[in-house]
Write a structure and sequence with these properties.
The complex is a heterodimer of chains A (about 350) and B (about 350). Chain A contains twelve helices and 14 strands. Chain A has about 350 residues and is of the alpha/beta class. Chain B has a domain of about 240 residues. In chain B, helix 1 crosses helix 2, helix 3 runs parallel beside helix 7 and helix 4 runs parallel beside helix 6. The chains are: A alpha/beta (about 350), B mainly alpha (about 350).
Chain lengths: ~350, ~350
């Protein structure tokens, strides 16, 4: 309590910083999480929360865990984060892109609290950013989709037009096309991350248009349900394994696993070695997990996909390796050239062959 | 036997007493709710109602309450005109959003020019007009085609929500935002920022506007013919007709006032606390303001207090979520109880309890 009161004033903050480390070593480390959705949303937030709980289990009594769910992006977020900092949190994870500016704003007021913002790009002395290379998983999905489709039409339920989603579409398309030159993608944007009703409608519309593989960048299981009802349609789990829909329609999945990162970062705070970093991890560290490929996929296709997974994990293969042209035919990557992280982070174009326009 | 008997006149004492009793009842029921959730009810109530004003971090929470109350009061004062006259603008949320889009649009059109004397006043005017015009749609449809303004104004909220999403990824998207949705942050644009008039009080231009609206509404209601017409139309439309009140003009005026004030609230919010045009900008202020208007008895001063109390439940509720790990839904339930209790207690204004048998006729 005394420390909190001290922290409340500017002078107190400086004082606490000066004598902070030894005092903190005796304290429990207080770890806070700010979530954009409810902790049982079945997708994005639930996975962050699961990973956070794994982190808490790992440290046991050494950490005190607080969280706030369903925090709207905007001014409420800034208050929620400030509250948590005032409440004595040592490190605060803010797990949605929309928390970026609020996190950075609060961080300037609390120089001795560590902040970790997911999926953003604004770093500061006490603000790290972290994200996952989900496009690596999309490459494997694209390969599987291109192989299993018989109608050569692949549906894609896209969420919000931001670079991450566009990267996913491009990565899946490139790899589907590579194994099956006849594929075409049909993309439906629903402009939300989680909306079971809209997702189901989108899946049904895609299936009616002849798609027999439906990829999704949305978080609910509704598309799997629609695919199961239609029969003969393949799907992939998103964020969660969604194994309950296997072996058909769900034939594999991309799993978000933040636990190793959270354990790592909290350990750094406990050890006093925390520093601001920009982390973008993929399959190699396990941040992006590839769910078990079910047996309805032919064995040689499964082996092909697993080989790609291992090559990506080993750093031998980059999903965006040239030659790749942009949608308008202009060259992007030359033969053998791989995409820079900067290009990937701001990707806002389709690659050649994808039909339609990015909504704006 | 306990029974209800209609009062010959609404009770004056209960008109003012009911909201207070409703708040007390909400606290009692809320304590039950928190106890069921396994939290210490006294600590929960203290966290919600006491700590934000008098607790150790009050210096942080008090400005937050002002920031939260400002748009609620501003919108609710506007709504009170229509509600008194029996004109139901349910779509203040939409007018609030459109005001924000219009005001922010003006600011972003001038970016990065620095001319606060020109840009900020222009934003205020355009934000106000934007909200006003959005409210004119249901108003004119009602006057000309006799449509139901409740439905039309409500539906237009959904249209406005789609519009702000479209603008946040389209026309107003921040060109330096790495392709992410959302406009530039107006708070970081000195010519457009709606900052605290007195630093660290939360008292920004929107709060000033809210106070001015309260005073203006008070004068209109007590001293002006228009306020009389509004009240008359609400209590007895026929009498109002005989008194020469033009019903159509009243609809246009009441909808216009509420739309303009909601638009203003949106503009001040987007230029200040929120800062950005974003799909998540709508924060239900337009709907919450309806509760505030009724909690405040449609009286400007009452609305001022109701807005502050509502803001307190938001701020304190969030604090309780964070500090006691209460689920978000529990706070929503708690706020819902407030309206529910108010409606229930309202019975006392028009009825009284009587013991014993009904008297023989």
């Amino acid at each position: 309590m005394k420390r909190r009161t001290l922290l409340a004033t500017g002078a107190g903050a400086a004082l606490a910083a000066a004598m902070g480390m030894p005092a903190r070593a005796q304290d429990k480390t207080k770890v806070g999480f700010i979530y954009v959705g409810p902790i049982n949303d079945g997708g994005w937030t639930q996975h962050h929360h699961h990973s956070a709980m794994e982190m808490v289990e790992h440290f046991g009594d050494a950490v005190e865990f607080v969280y706030q769910e369903s925090v709207p992006e905007g001014p409420d977020a800034e208050r929620a984060i400030t509250q948590m900092a005032l409440g004595g949190a040592d490190i605060i994870f803010t797990t949605s892109f929309g928390f970026m500016d609020p996190t950075v704003n609060v961080a300037t007021n609390f120089p001795d609290v560590k902040f970790e913002h997911a999926t953003g790009y604004k770093q500061a002395d006490n603000v790290s950013v972290y994200s996952a290379r989900f496009y690596e998983g999309r490459a494997i999905q694209g390969t599987l989709a291109g192989r299993v489709t018989t109608t050569n039409k692949i549906g894609y339920i896209a969420s919000v037009p931001i670079p991450e989603v566009i990267r996913g579409i491009n990565s899946a398309y490139i790899h589907a096309k590579k194994v099956n030159p006849d594929v075409e993608f049909k993309i439906i944007w629903i402009f939300e991350w989680l909306n079971p009703a809209k997702e189901a409608d989108a899946a049904k519309a895609l299936i009616e248009q002849g798609c027999d593989v439906v990829l999704q960048h949305t978080d609910s299981t509704a598309p799997h349900q629609a695919a199961r009802e239609a029969g003969g349609v393949y799907t992939f789990g998103q964020a969660a394994d969604m194994a309950e829909y296997g072996p058909m329609p769900r034939i594999s999945s991309i799993i978000d696993n933040w636990a190793p990162y959270y354990i790592d970062r909290v350990q750094a705070v406990i050890d006093g070695t925390w520093s601001s970093v920009n982390t973008w991890d993929g399959i190699s560290t396990g941040m992006v997990g590839i769910g078990e490929i079910s047996d309805v996929v032919p064995a040689e296709v499964k082996a092909e996909a697993e080989a790609m997974r291992d090559a990506i994990a080993a750093g031998e293969y980059h999903p965006f390796t040239g030659p790749i042209n942009k949608q308008d035919g202009s060259p992007w990557l030359a033969e053998g050239e791989t995409a820079s992280d900067g290009d990937l982070a701001s990707m806002f174009f389709y690659v050649e062959g994808v039909e339609g326009d990015i909504p704006s | 036997m306990l029974r209800l008997e209609k009062r010959p006149q609404p009770s004056r004492a209960w008109t003012y007493g009911a909201p207070v009793l409703a708040v007390i009842l909400t606290i009692i029921f809320g304590m039950g709710l928190f106890a069921i959730l396994g939290k210490d009810p006294l600590i929960a109530i203290k966290t919600i109602f006491w700590d934000p004003i008098f607790g150790p971090f009050a210096h942080f929470y008090r400005p937050e309450i002002v920031k939260k109350a400002a748009p609620l009061v501003l919108i609710a004062v506007g709504l009170s005109f229509g509600f008194r006259a029996g004109i139901w603008n349910i779509g203040a949320e939409g007018q609030y959003i459109i005001g924000a889009i219009c005001g922010a649009g003006v600011a972003l059109a001038f970016y990065p020019m620095e001319a606060r004397w020109l840009i900020f006043p222009l934003m205020i005017v355009v934000g106000l007009v934007g909200g006003l015009l959005w409210a004119m749609i249901p108003a004119i449809l009602r006057v000309v085609f006799k449509t139901n303004e409740i439905l039309v104004s409500l539906m237009l909220v959904y249209v406005a929500e789609v519009l702000i999403k479209a603008f946040s990824i389209g026309l107003l998207r921040n060109p330096e935002g790495f392709g992410m949705p959302g406009s530039r942050n107006l708070r970081q644009y000195p010519s457009a920022a709606n900052l605290d008039l007195i630093p660290n009080t939360g008292f920004h231009w929107g709060a000033l506007a809210a106070l001015m609206a309260v005073v203006a509404a008070y004068i209109l209601f007590t001293r002006h013919q228009f306020g009389f017409n509004v009240r008359l139309a609400g209590q007895s439309p026929r009498a109002a007709g005989f008194a020469g009140v033009n019903a159509n003009r009243l609809v246009i005026l009441c909808m216009g006032i509420s739309g303009a004030l909601a638009g203003l609230a949106g503009l001040f919010e987007v230029a200040g606390p929120s800062g950005q045009i974003l799909g998540s900008f709508p924060a239900f202020y337009g709907f919450t303001a309806i509760i505030v208007a009724f909690l405040g008895r449609l009286h400007p001063v009452g609305i001022l207090f109701a807005g502050l109390i509502m803001a307190l439940t938001y701020i304190g509720g969030q604090a309780a979520e964070a500090q006691l790990n209460l689920p978000a839904a529990a706070i929503l339930t708690f706020q819902g109880m407030l309206l529910f209790c108010l409606l229930a207690v309202d019975v006392l204004t028009n009825y009284r309890f009587k013991f014993g048998q009904r008297e023989a006729r």
